[in-house]
């Protein structure tokens, strides 16, 4: 068995990975190259690779791990240079672009059955042509992380945070809770007389930036619980709806929390100071974040955290984006036969249970999810705020990233537009023009 892992980070080392993969074009036919970006998941997939190799003598898996930003830069460059991996971890936000570039191998012959995975995960990887280009890998939802001590000091508890509701008029009980958790430099809370919004010591809610065009861990759950959808179709919509009154009233209220001093200002957000960092530093009491961050929050020294479900909205339902990653095969994979075998194994119950047992992510199959929940419980981590939305369709709405063509262009336009509304003082109505520009691109 010849199992290898290649780690890559920023700068010259990441560049050398692409160079190394170019050399890999001459690799023996028994090697399957596989790329992923999450270092926390690397040990789990090493274990899957070892099992796969035992079952397939003569086939070896070579895993390369890169950081998120480098990953997509190098992956795109590899398709151009002909140095692409045989198999790679795919993101639904990037799927449309790769499908449009025709660099993905159809996977219809693998016999993937939607019913074998959590609802909706498999269907998200069907292209406009109806063919499958990804096999379900894992899933995540979003919940409210909170500092347990700060919540207790504010006179609140877990039951309070799991029973919050919001509306765009006065913010509902959610805004009241966030105000209560906010403390200025003089120790006055956001709901107390004399509160100084310009000199805040602890914000009730951390910031994850403007949210770009999807708002996954910022405003998406508010928008969805108000009944809004990104486009007019669940998948492959042709017109975005950022000009919708429901969306804009929600955005005006949400970013208005920063104007009131309850949410950290846009200037507090950076790549090195994301919401989780703000909670760890004690400058924010709560943060909306994804299930993939559970291990990160659990690792904070001196901070005990809890999680609560997202607040109910005007529709009466709670909502959360349910994102699901997949494994895709490059159309020009050097070892296509081996790549297809590896991808099918990655989506199997056997590998899914193995990954679940590491307690770092929720695998796509129900059994894999069950194994992950048990593993998290052994670590003392309650994950019910993330699993409840998947189990309780009566009270929760789950939804996907917007799946459309020209996703990169949409993000390129929405990122500065949302930042201008959040931190630049532009009116929310300015999104009308951005929406027109986006729909003009989609109409090409």
From TrEMBL:
<feature type="signal peptide">
    <location>
        <begin position="1"/>
        <end position="24"/>
    </location>
</feature>
<dbReference type="InterPro" id="IPR006059">
    <property type="entry name" value="SBP"/>
</dbReference>
<comment type="similarity">
    <text>Belongs to the bacterial solute-binding protein 1 family.</text>
</comment>
<keyword id="KW-0732">Signal</keyword>
<dbReference type="Pfam" id="PF01547">
    <property type="entry name" value="SBP_bac_1"/>
</dbReference>
<keyword id="KW-0813">Transport</keyword>
<protein>
    <submittedName>
        <fullName>ABC transporter substrate-binding protein</fullName>
    </submittedName>
</protein>
<dbReference type="InterPro" id="IPR050490">
    <property type="entry name" value="Bact_solute-bd_prot1"/>
</dbReference>
């Amino acid at each position: 068995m010849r199992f290898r892992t290649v780690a890559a980070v920023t700068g010259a080392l990441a560049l050398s990975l692409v160079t190394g993969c170019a050399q890999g074009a001459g690799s023996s036919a028994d090697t399957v190259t596989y790329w992923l970006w999450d270092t926390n998941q690397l040990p789990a997939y090493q274990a899957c690779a070892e099992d796969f190799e035992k079952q397939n003598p003569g086939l070896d898996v070579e895993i390369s791990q890169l950081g998120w930003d480098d990953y997509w830069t190098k992956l795109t460059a590899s398709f151009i240079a002909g140095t692409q991996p045989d198999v790679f971890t795919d993101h639904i936000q990037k799927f449309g672009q790769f499908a449009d570039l025709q660099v993905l191998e159809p996977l219809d012959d693998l016999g993937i059955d939607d019913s074998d995975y959590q609802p909706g995960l498999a269907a998200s990887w069907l292209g406009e042509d109806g063919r499958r280009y990804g096999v379900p890998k894992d899933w995540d939802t979003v919940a409210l992380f909170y500092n347990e001590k700060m919540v207790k000091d504010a006179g609140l508890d877990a039951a309070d945070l799991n029973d919050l509701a919001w509306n765009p008029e006065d913010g509902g009980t959610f805004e009241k809770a966030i105000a209560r958790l906010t403390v200025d430099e003089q120790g006055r809370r956001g709901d107390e007389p004399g509160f100084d919004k310009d000199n805040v010591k602890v914000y009730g809610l951390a910031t994850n930036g403007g949210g770009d065009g999807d708002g996954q861990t910022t405003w998406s759950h508010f928008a969805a619980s108000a009944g809004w959808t990104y486009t007019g179709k669940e998948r492959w919509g042709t017109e975005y709806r950022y000009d919708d009154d429901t969306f804009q009233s929600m955005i005006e209220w949400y970013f208005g929390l920063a104007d009131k001093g309850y949410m950290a200002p846009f200037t507090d957000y950076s790549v090195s100071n994301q919401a989780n960092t703000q909670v760890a530093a004690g400058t924010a009491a709560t943060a909306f974040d994804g299930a993939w961050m559970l291990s990160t929050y659990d690792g904070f020294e001196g901070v005990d955290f809890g999680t609560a479900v997202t607040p109910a909205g005007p529709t009466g339902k709670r909502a959360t984006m349910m994102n699901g990653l997949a494994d895709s095969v490059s159309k020009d994979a050097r070892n296509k036969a081996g790549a297809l075998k590896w991808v099918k194994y990655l989506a199997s119950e056997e590998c899914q249970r193995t990954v679940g047992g590491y307690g770092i992510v929720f695998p796509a199959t129900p059994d894999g999810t069950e194994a992950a929940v048990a593993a998290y419980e052994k670590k003392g981590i309650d994950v019910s705020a993330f699993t409840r939305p998947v189990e309780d369709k009566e009270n929760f709405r789950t939804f996907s990233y917007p799946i459309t063509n020209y996703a990169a262009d949409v993000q390129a336009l929405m990122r500065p537009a949302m930042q201008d509304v959040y931190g630049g003082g532009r009116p929310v109505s300015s999104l009308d023009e951005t929406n027109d520009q986006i729909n003009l691109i989609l109409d090409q």
